[in-house]
Every structure is written in C-alpha cells, then in structure tokens.
Design a protein that fits this description.
single chain; 470 residues; 5-stranded parallel beta sheet; 32% helix; 25% strand
Length: 470
C-alpha cells in the first residue's frame, strides 16, 4: 500500500500532522502501537491528569471549611465524602471521549489507521508488526516520526506501578496513600503531588536542585513553593535519592544531601518517580537507517523537520525543544504544510507553558535569569492579585503577574503568571508577543472589569511605573 505520508504515532503531534496533511490533499496513513489514538497526552498524561486536578480541587474546596476560598467561606455548607473509584471513573470517561474524538477526526479526514509496532526498514518503507492484520509493509513518499516520549527512569529504582509508580500509575492508585513521596519537583510531580495531597495524602517532594520547577522564573518559583508548602506539601531540596526499597506494601527512600552529609530514610506507602521524560525511539530502526540523534537521544532535524535520511521527518518530543503537546501540534501543522510545498513555521520563542496546580503557573517567553545570562537590558512590571478586584471577591488573591520588556524598545520579552486561571490568561500575552507587541501595547488594551486578567494590564502599566490600582 502506497501513501503520500505515513505518520508514526498518533499523539498531539502525529494526529495533527496527519489531519493537516489530509486537508492539503495528501493520502495519509497513521501507525499507532496503542489500541487507542491520542498518545501519552490523551491516554495517560495531560487529559487524565487534568480531570483529576479538576475533581480534586473541587473536593478540596468543599472539604476545607477553613480555607479563605473554600465553600464554607462562601456560605455553602457541605461535608463531602470521597468516592475515589467514581473519581477515577470520571477521569477514564474523559479520556474515552477524547480518544474517540481523535478516532472520529482521522476517519472524517479519510486517514487510514494501522495498529501495531512500526519500524522504518528503508527510506519510504514502514513495516508494521503486531496489529490485527499481521505484519505488513507500507510505502510512502514521506514518513513523519511522532512517537513522543516515555518516563525517564532512575538507575536502580524499579517501577512496578503499584508501590513505586510513574505518572501513569499515579493516575490510577486504587486508594489514597497515607504517605506519598514524589521524586522530582517538575510540573508533572507537582501536579500529581497536588492531586493526592488534596485527597488526603501526606506528600513530600524530593528534588536534587535547590529549587522547584526548573526553568520557571526564579521569583515565581519561590512564591509558588511557599504556596504549595502552605497547602501541606513538604519539600526536600538539594537532596538526591540513593535508592528505594519496597516490600510491596511500604517503601523506604534513602536520601542524602547533594553536597554530602547525613543520610536519612523516608518511609511512605507510594513513591512517584517523576524526573522527566526521554524520547521514545526504540524499535524504529533509526540506527540501521543511519538517522542521526544527539547525546540525549533526540532525533536531529533541520529547520524543515527533515532528518539526514531523505524522506524521513520528526516532530514533537523526539526532537529538541520543550516536551509539550501544543509544541508538537504546531510542529505537526508545520511539517504537513512544508511537505505540501507551503511555508510551515513554528515560533519557538512564543510557546506558553502551564503548571495546572491551584493556583496555576503560566509562562511565555523568557524569564529574568535567561535575560540576565543573555546580557539583555530589560524592565520589570509586577502586579499582585491581592490588588485585583475580581481576585479579592473570589478570594483567589495568591500570586502575581510579571511582565518583562526590552529596556530600549519596550518589546515584550516574557510574561509570567502565578494565580487562578493563569493558563487562560497567558494567551493574550502569547498573541501580543507573536505580533511583536510592546508592554505599552498590552497596557493600552481595554480589559473587561472585573476580571482576573486586568492584572496583566496592570503589570504592563507597572513596567513604566504607572500601575493604577497599586
């Protein structure tokens, strides 16, 4: 069977690339090793974790009568009872709806799906094994690798998805662990740690670095940690994990300060290993084909997503850049358009990122540390949600907005938001930055009142020392 394009992997990058290519008139096939489409994101990543974050946040608001933003503070008296099985079923139903949606979109765009393990046996040839139809060979003018990433392991620590779990296992724990240890203070560990803390677990996060959320603006990360600590999450920073021993019921985590010192043992019921992700390229036949990879196992591509092997392209988590679903989606659109002879492009300077805790953390562009390192003169505008009318009345006053603009040109270089619904508010900053806008432009835009994103306008005003409500 011959196609214009074969896409290996149907996560956010792969299925979007396939759909865009089909829209542009190509005959497209996709190969997926899972029984369902959607990749890690829809099946065991973004979508199920957001379902649990949403449900657990509502549970915590209802359960915590003493919280300033809790139900009791608003005159709503309830005594919630946790039905974890039902909450997990709610999560699974959301996943089912999303993966079925991708299946529908592939069918609607006349994309032919194949289930099985793909191997590129030669330029233009993909062998699919293990599917319902047995082994078969597909041919295409172009092949796009969009196989995503998998959980990074810690040498010597075996993940059994019961007492020592990855993010996948942490989405389906059959009961709330009394004590949960999270290894890694990145966004996945903080999100899933938050879920189980809200549901009653004693959560300790262990991180080798002296700070949480590496890559986040330092000032934002510091306040973010204070808020999470107030919510009951304990942190052991500058600490490395020497090993995890488990008898199948409880775990003992051996710790030691990074700079050396007294070792300690942390006892818990479940350990979540969340130290990042690595490109998922095993079994694709890349070495035999001669496809070049870098020292981190990522496939090397040029500005058109082409590898060094003619006709073979790669996008998403298997190439350099942030491992984010929306980054992969944009690359999927871009590579399809390039293959159709159009000018596909991704602006890597304007890719927002969000941590979906409560409050959320959202960023786009550069942080202060990056600007200092690059020697760029900049100015800062900040505005706290304690001075925002909507945040006050909603009692969601934790956090602030931070705007970074070029000292000479006023061009917006970065925006960082710690606060309720930050993931939605960051979009206006991304739009403005995409069009090369300035802090002055952001400050001049009329924002509806009362809204949380008035704080974005005020932070832009503050960059010139003229915030109104502070």
């Amino acid at each position: 069977m011959t196609y214009d394009l074969i896409v290996i992997g149907t996560g956010p990058g792969g299925y979007v690339a396939a759909i865009r290519a089909a829209q542009l008139g190509m005959k497209v096939a996709v190969v997926e090793k899972r029984a369902t489409h959607g990749g890690t994101c829809l099946n065991v990543g973004c979508i199920p974790s957001k379902a649990l974050l949403h449900a657990s946040e509502l549970y915590a608001e209802a359960a915590d009568g003493g919280a300033a933003s809790g139900f009791a503070a608003m005159g709503i008296k309830v005594k919630p009872e946790l039905d974890l099985a039902a909450m997990l079923a709610f999560k699974d139903e959301g996943v089912k709806g999303n993966v079925q949606g991708v299946e529908f979109l592939l069918k609607k765009n006349k994309i032919e799906p194949f289930h099985g393990t793909a191997k590129i046996v030669a330029p233009g040839k993909v062998e699919v094994a293990g599917g319902n139809g047995g082994a078969q060979t597909l041919e295409a003018k172009a092949i796009v690798i969009a196989t995503g990433s998998e959980v990074a392991a810690i040498p010597g620590i075996a993940i059994d998805e019961e007492t020592v779990v990855s993010s996948t296992g942490a989405l389906s724990l059959p009961k709330v662990p009394k004590r949960l240890t999270v290894i890694g203070a990145g966004y996945i560990g903080l999100e899933l740690g938050s879920v189980w803390r809200r549901l009653g677990s004693e959560v300790t996060v262990v991180e080798m670095l002296p700070r949480i959320a590496p890559g986040l603006d330092g000032e934002v990360a510091k306040q973010f940690q204070r808020i999470l600590a107030k919510q009951g999450i304990a942190f052991k920073l500058d600490t490395k994990v020497l090993g995890v021993a488990t008898d199948g019921k409880t775990c003992k985590v051996r710790l030691e300060p990074v700079k050396g010192g007294t070792q300690e043992t942390l006892e818990c019921d479940v350990v979540l290993v969340s130290v990042g992700r690595v490109p998922n390229t095993q079994g694709l036949g890349l070495a035999e084909l001669g496809v070049k990879t870098d020292n981190r196992g990522r496939i090397q591509v040029d500005q058109h997503f082409a590898t060094n092997v003619p006709g073979v392209y790669a996008i998403g988590d298997v190439i350099a850049g942030p491992m984010l679903a929306h980054k992969a989606e944009d690359e999927g659109v871009a590579v399809a358009e390039i293959l159709a002879g159009q000018a596909g492009h991704v602006n890597y300077d304007v890719i927002p990122s969000v941590i979906y805790t409560a409050p959320e953390v959202a960023s786009v562009g550069r942080c202060e540390e990056e600007l200092k390192e690059a020697g760029i003169a900049y100015k800062v505008g900040k505005f706290p949600f304690t001075a925002n009318g909507r945040a006050k009345v909603n009692r969601t006053t934790e956090g602030f907005v931070k705007v970074l603009a070029d000292e000479a040109t006023d061009r917006l270089l970065g925006v960082h938001i710690l606060g309720a619904d930050a993931g939605t508010m960051i979009a206006e900053a991304a739009v403005l930055m995409e069009f090369g806008g300035s802090a002055e432009d952001l400050a001049r835009i009329c924002h509806a009142h009362p809204t949380l994103n008035e704080a974005v306008k005020e932070a832009a005003l503050a960059a010139e020392g003229r915030a109104i409500h502070m």
